[in-house]
Amino acid sequence: MNRRKRKRTLILAIAAVMAVTAFVPLVGTDPAFAARDWGGTTWKVDGKRVYTGESYGGWKNGIRARADGSPGDSISMSSGKSVSNSLSGNVGISKSKLNAAFHFNVSRQWSSTASKSYGLTKKKKGTWWKIQYKRVYRNYKIKARMYSFYDGTWHKTRKTKWIKAKKFDHFAYRLVKAKAVK
């Protein structure tokens, strides 16, 4: 192969590689940038968070005790429990943007210590009692809106969705009568 043909082949090979890579988006790029560069859609937070009330887990049984009628008689419970915040309805918005919008870490998990005491002095002697507890969450939602990229700019669409988040707040307790231990 003469020098001229090799040069032409090399130029054609480089041009082919450049043509292919020019139309392939980079892997791992932000979806908003990829949509902007290639046309398409992305979701963005559209508004402030809205508080929607509290929700509760089911009652769980803690410790049991029998009232003995003595002064200072009480029942106490203390233990570490696993708790977490949670998220539902995400449409592809990054966790860092959702954390900023909700004002808390939407996927945090940790251990919380729960403790409570009740006096049994005024309870009938020989009756059994137990402490029950449940997790209490504060619920929030935030609106997400779809944006389309065309004509060189982002355009707001009518399509919206609600993203919901639960934030662990505290444990609730109650003292209830229990069945006698046999």
Give structural notes.
The chain contains three helices and eight strands. The chain is 20% helix and 52% strand. The longest helix has 20 residues. With 182 residues, the protein is of the alpha+beta class. About 3% of the residues have low confidence.
Per DSSP, the total helix count is 3
Mean pLDDT: 86
Low-confidence stretches: 24-28
Order of helices and strands: HHEEEEEHEEE
**Using only CA atoms, what is the Rg?**
30 Å
Gross morphology: elongated
SSE layout and pairings?
Layout: H1 3-22, H2 31-38, E1 40-45, E2 50-56, E3 60-66, E4 74-84, E5 86-88, H3 95-102, E6 109-119, E7 128-150, E8 153-178
Antiparallel strand pairs: 1-7, 2-7, 3-7, 4-6, 5-8, 7-8
List the defining traits of the structure above.
alpha+beta, six-stranded antiparallel β-sheet, Proaerolysin, Chain A, domain 3
Give a summary of the structure in a few sentences.
This protein is of the alpha+beta class. The protein is 20% helix and 52% strand.
